[in-house]
Amino acid sequence: MFLPFALAYFLSYLLRNANAVMSPVLTRELNLSASDLGLLTSAYFFAFGVFQLPLGMLLDRYGPRRVEALLMLFAAVGTLVFALGHSIGVLAFGRGLIGIGVSACLMAALKHFSLWYPLERQSALTGAVMAAGGLGAISASVPLEALLPTLGWRGVFFALTAIIVAVAGLIFLVVPERNDGDSATGVAEQWRGVVHIFASRDFWRFAPLMALFPGGFMAIAGLWIVPWFIGVDGATREAAAFNLFVMSATQLASFFAIALFATQMIRRGFDPSRFIGTALAIAWLSIVLAIAGVRPALPLWVVYSFCSATATLLYAALGTNFPAALYGRVSTTLNLLAFAGAFSLQWGLGVLVDLFVAVGWSEPQAFRAAFAVMAALQLFAWIWFFREGRRVVIVGQPTAKPAPPAL
């Protein structure tokens, strides 16, 4: 049962990235500073991330159908609050409700796949549902920009409220259930599973990379790339929306490639960690070149988008180290790191831009410096990932089992 989860994740990605295109309108109507805009938009990531640990336990205990259907109703309330809001506090509260509401859209799909499909198909299914999210990201670019003159940003969120309720009903009515043997586990036992994950050296090898690469991409694509195109590259709002469209389409192509080729690569003994590390190194180099002012800039952002999408395989690479009963908690705990990074970077980039402008730097200089800080942190995370992986092998304590990825 793929379609209901694909529709939900489509909406999740659309809502995640919607503020990027709407940022000039929101800034003008609400008189927001860069840090205000970053805080408002990143409220989604904060709420999403905070809810990941209880979400994992809920998915393992009650199953993806009931959990996601209920949470989508929270998202509907959030879009309604956002549509009606006139202050930054109310709008941030609405974004937070949206974050909680869509927090299960990917994790519930992955949990469902783990219950109903053989192991070797799950990487392809993950890529396919991520592709649905990529379509949502595309819809949050040029198509959303085209709707704003007609519906306005409030009208867009009123329409999304109705669509979300319909998808929640579809999930509840048509998705089947299957017990994986963990639904009777008590809360204390489930928390022990979470503690086991946090105590794992494998988890902490992946944690900085997850926080700073997927988190960084979400922070940029979800808000700051449009102000970058306008303020640094001198693009019009329409051109910036088109550039975001191209980036989203590129990310979608990467997700499709993962869906088509991941299963065959895994069967041939493909090492996802090495592949991810290489792809993210290319992503890092492309953003460094963009920060340095290399032109044309759009091809660099295209490469960044394509290579960043491979970070979805981090779930697969980590998932081999834990038993199936912990799967929901492993995925959501790793997801917690991604969204904690997205929240911190999305808000932090706005704070840094305001700070650099306040000390006399131009807006382009401020953006470049803020992005450079993020790139420096990403370099540390990349080095840590490979250093820890090499150390585990050298001391003869590998914890990963020679099994295919769990996604």
Sequence-ordered SSE layout with sheet pairings:
Layout: H1 3-30, H2 34-50, H3 52-62, H4 64-84, H5 88-101, H6 105-116, H7 122-139, H8 142-174, H9 187-198, H10 201-212, H11 214-231, H12 237-267, H13 272-291, H14 298-308, H15 313-319, H16 327-358, H17 363-394
Helix pairs in contact: 1-2, 1-6, 1-7, 1-8, 1-11, 2-5, 2-16, 3-4, 3-16, 4-5, 4-6, 4-8, 6-7, 6-16, 7-12, 10-11, 10-16, 10-17, 11-12, 11-16, 12-14, 13-14, 13-17, 16-17
Organism: Candidatus Muproteobacteria bacterium RBG_16_60_9
Main location: membrane
GO molecular function: transmembrane transporter activity
Describe this protein's structure.
It is a multi-pass membrane protein. This protein has 407 residues and is mainly α. The protein is built from 17 helices and no strands. It has a single domain (3-176, 183-394), classed as Growth Hormone, Chain: A (Up-down Bundle). It has helices spanning 3-30, 34-50, 52-62, 64-84, 88-101, 105-116, 122-139, 142-174, 187-198, 201-212, 214-231, 237-267, 272-291, 298-308, 313-319, 327-358, 363-394. α1 (3-30) crosses α8 and α1 (3-30) packs across α11 (214-231). It starts with a helix and ends in a 13-residue tail after the last helix. The relative contact order is 0.16. The model is unreliable at 392-407 (pLDDT under 50).
